Structure to design on (617 residues):
C-alpha cells in the first residue's frame, strides 16, 4: 500500500552567493515514520531543514509539506501550515524573558481560545511528559542544557502537531539523557502517530528511532531508503559514516 | 463536534481537539452546573478524534464537577481515543508548584542588600580590577593587542568629532542668542564673551561631550561586552587563560581617556565659535573684540579643570558600560536592557560627577 507522504522534496537547489549548497535534492518522508536527515558537517543538512520550514525561500525545485507546496502558499496559508508543525531547534530557542510554562503555553495562548486555567493544565501535563513539571516557573537561564532541550520539545508538541521537525535534538546531551529523549520521540511517533523529521549526527539515536534515512553528501542525496538498507549501502560517504557501527557491540545490535 | 443526551448519558461525536475544547468545556459547565448532584456518563463511542487539549478539557470538567461532588465516567472509547486518554489524562490531581512569594518587607530588604552587594560593591571591585590592569598594562607592551588602542580611539573619539562639534556649536550659538537681549538692555554687550566662554568651557563643553560619548560609546561598550558574555566569548577568553577585562575593557579605557580631552577641546572651540557668531550677528561684537576679551578672561584653571573632568567622565563611561555588559542575563532581551541601563546610569553618574567637580573647582 502506498504510504501517505508528509514531506516531498523534488529537484531542490540552493546557493549562497556563488556557492551551491544543495544540488537537485529529492526525497520523501512518510506519515507516521521517523525520517532522519544525515550527513557530515557542511553537507547541507541545515540548509535543507530551513527550506522545509520555509525559513529559506525555494528558488528552484519544489517542497511539499503535508501536501502543500510551500512555494505557492500565501502568508495566511503558511501560518496555517505552521500550526500543524512543531519545530524543535538545536539551541532550544526558548524566549529568555518568559518562564518555561509561558514558553510552552505560547502557541496555545496565541492560536486557541482555551481558558488560561486549562492552558496551564495542558502545559503542566506536557511538561510532565518530558519530565520537567518542576521547572514550571523557572526561566530558561535557570535550566541545564538537557532541561532546555526537553522544555523546547514540550513547546514543539504542545499543539499535538501531526508533523514534528527536530534539528539535532541530541547535540550536547549525555548518553542517558539522549536515550530518554529518543524514547520520548519514539513515544510521540507510536502513541500520537506523529511524523518526525530528524536532523542528527548521533549514530546511536539513528539506530533507535529511524525508520527512513536520507543521507546528504556535499549537497547531494547520496542515499535514501530504509535504515537497514543504509547500513549496507555501497556509497563511500554512507559507508564511512556508519563505519562506527562496525564495532562488535553494534554488530550484535544489527543482528 | 456534537454532544447530546441519549439514554441518560452524554454522547460525544465528531472531533474533540484544541479547536473544540474551549467551547465544549465552557458550554458543558454552564449547562450542567444547575443540574442535580449526580454522576454522568460520557459515551465516547462516536468520537472520531481527540488530542491533548481535548483530554485535558475532560479532566478540567471533572475537576470543576468535583467541587460539587459530581463524577463523570468515560465509556465506550474506541481504541485510538482511549490510547490518547491513557497517555494524557493526569493520574493524580494537578498540583502546580507555587511561584516563590516574598512579602513587602523581605523584598525591600532584599533589594537594599542587592543594591549594595550586587551594584555598589561589585562596581567598586570591577573599577579596581580595570584600573589595576589598566595601570599594569601601560608598562607591558607585550600584552597589549597591536592596533587595538588606535581602533578603539577611532571608534570612541574620532567618529564622535562631528556630532560633538555640531551640537556644541549650536548650543554656544543659542546661549549667546538668548542672552543677547538681556545684556543689550543693560548696556553690557561685551559681557556676552564672559558668559559664553565661561559656560562653554567650564560646563557645557565637557558635559555635552560626556553625554554624547556615554550615549554613543557607553551603549556600544555595554552591548559588545553583554553579547560577548551571552555568546560565551568571555568564557572562552577565560578558558584560554586570558583576562576578559584586560582583553576587552582596558583598551577601551585607554582610548576613551585619551580621546576625551581632545573631544572636549573641539567642543569648547565649536561652542565658543557659535557664541562668537551669535554675538557678532546680534550684538555687533566683532570676532577681534571677542578674541581680545576672551584672552583677558580665560585662565589656565579652565584648562586643567576640563582635563580632570575629561578623565573622570571617560572612566565613568567605560566602567559603567562594561559593568552592565558583564551583568547581562537572559540572552537577547538582557542585552537590550543592560545597554539601556548603561546609558541611563552613565549619564546620571556624569552629571553627578560634574556637580561634585563643579563644587571642588569653584
Amino acid at each position: 500500500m502506498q504510504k501517505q507522504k508528509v514531506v516531498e522534496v523534488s529537484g531542490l537547489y540552493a546557493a549562497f552567493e556563488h556557492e551551491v549548497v544543495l544540488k537537485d535534492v529529492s526525497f520523501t518522508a512518510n506519515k507516521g515514520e521517523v525520517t532522519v536527515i544525515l550527513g557530515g558537517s557542511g553537507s547541507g543538512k541545515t540548509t535543507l531543514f530551513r527550506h522545509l520550514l520555509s525559513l529559506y525561500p525555494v528558488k528552484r525545485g519544489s517542497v511539499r509539506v503535508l501536501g502543500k507546496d510551500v512555494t505557492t502558499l500565501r502568508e495566511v496559508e503558511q501560518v496555517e501550515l505552521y500550526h500543524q508543525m512543531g519545530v524543535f531547534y538545536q539551541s532550544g530557542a526558548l524566549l529568555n524573558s518568559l518562564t518555561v510554562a509561558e514558553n510552552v503555553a505560547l502557541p496555545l495562548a496565541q492560536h486557541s481560545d482555551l481558558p488560561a486555567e486549562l492552558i496551564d493544565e495542558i502545559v503542566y501535563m506536557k511538561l510532565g511528559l518530558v519530565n520537567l513539571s518542576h521547572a514550571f516557573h523557572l526561566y530558561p537561564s535557570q535550566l541545564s542544557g538537557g532541561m532546555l532541550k526537553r522544555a523546547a520539545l514540550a513547546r514543539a508538541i504542545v499543539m499535538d502537531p501531526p508533523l514534528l521537525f527536530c534539528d539535532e535534538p541530541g547535540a550536547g546531551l549525555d548518553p542517558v539523557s539522549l536515550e530518554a529523549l529518543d524514547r520520548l520521540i519514539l513515544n510521540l511517533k507510536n502513541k500520537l502517530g506523529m511524523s518526525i523529521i530528524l536532523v542528527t549526527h548521533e549514530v546511536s539515536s539513528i539506530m533507535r528511532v529511524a525508520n527512513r534515512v536520507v543521507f546528504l553528501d556535499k549537497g547531494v542525496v547520496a542515499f535514501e531508503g530504509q535504515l537497514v538498507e543504509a547500513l549496507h549501502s555501497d556509497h563511500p560517504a554512507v559507508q564511512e559514516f556508519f563505519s562506527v557501527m562496525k564495532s562488535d557491540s553494534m554488530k550484535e545490535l544489527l543482528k | 463536534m456534537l454532544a447530546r443526551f441519549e439514554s441518560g448519558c452524554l454522547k460525544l461525536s465528531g472531533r474533540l481537539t484544541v479547536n473544540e475544547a474551549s467551547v465544549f468545556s465552557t458550554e458543558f459547565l454552564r449547562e450542567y452546573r444547575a443540574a442535580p448532584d449526580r454522576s454522568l456518563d460520557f459515551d465516547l463511542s462516536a468520537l472520531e478524534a481527540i488530542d491533548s487539549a481535548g483530554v485535558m478539557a475532560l479532566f478540567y470538567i471533572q475537576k470543576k464537577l468535583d467541587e460539587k461532588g459530581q463524577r463523570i465516567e468515560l465509556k465506550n472509547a474506541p481504541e485510538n481515543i482511549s490510547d490518547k486518554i491513557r497517555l494524557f489524562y493526569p493520574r493524580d490531581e494537578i498540583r502546580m508548584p507555587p511561584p516563590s512569594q516574598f512579602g513587602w518587607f523581605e523584598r525591600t530588604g532584599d533589594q537594599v542588600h542587592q543594591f549594595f552587594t550586587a551594584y555598589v560593591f561589585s562596581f567598586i571591585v570591577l573599577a579596581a580590577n580595570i584600573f589595576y590592569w589598566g595601570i599594569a598594562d601601560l608598562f607591558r607592551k607585550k600584552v597589549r593587542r597591536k592596533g587595538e588602542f588606535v581602533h578603539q580611539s577611532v571608534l570612541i573619539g574620532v567618529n564622535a568629532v562631528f556630532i560633538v562639534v555640531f551640537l556644541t556649536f549650536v548650543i554656544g550659538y543659542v546661549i549667546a542668542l538668548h542672552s543677547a537681549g538681556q545684556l543689550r538692555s543693560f548696556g553690557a554687550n561685551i559681557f556676552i564673551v564672559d558668559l559664553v566662554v565661561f559656560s562653554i568651557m567650564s560646563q557645557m563643553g565637557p558635559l555635552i561631550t560626556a553625554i554624547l560619548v556615554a550615549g554613543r560609546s557607553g551603549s556600544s561598550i555595554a552591548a559588545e561586552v553583554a553579547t560577548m558574555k551571552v555568546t560565551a566569548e568571555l568564557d572562552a577568553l577565560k578558558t584560554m587563560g586570558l583576562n576578559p577585562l584586560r582583553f576587552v575593557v582596558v583598551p577601551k579605557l585607554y582610548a576613551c581617556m585619551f580621546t576625551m580631552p581632545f573631544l572636549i577641546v573641539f567642543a569648547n572651540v565649536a561652542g565658543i565659535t557659535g557664541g562668537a557668531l551669535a554675538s557678532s550677528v546680534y550684538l555687533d561684537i566683532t570676532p577681534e573684540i571677542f578674541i581680545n576679551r576672551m584672552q583677558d578672561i580665560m585662565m589656565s584653571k579652565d584648562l586643567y579643570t576640563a582635563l580632570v573632568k575629561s578623565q573622570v567622565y571617560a572612566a565613568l563611561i567605560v566602567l559603567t558600560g562594561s559593568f552592565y555588559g558583564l551583568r547581562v542575563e537572559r540572552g537577547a532581551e538582557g542585552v537590550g536592557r543592560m545597554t539601556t541601563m548603561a546609558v541611563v546610569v552613565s549619564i546620571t553618574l556624569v552629571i553627578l560627577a560634574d556637580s561634585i567637580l563643579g563644587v571642588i573647582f569653584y
About this structure: The interface with chain B takes residues 95-97, 108, 111-115, 117-118, 120-122, 124-126, 128, 133-134, 136-137, 139-141, 158-160, 191-192 of chain A (CB under 8 Å).
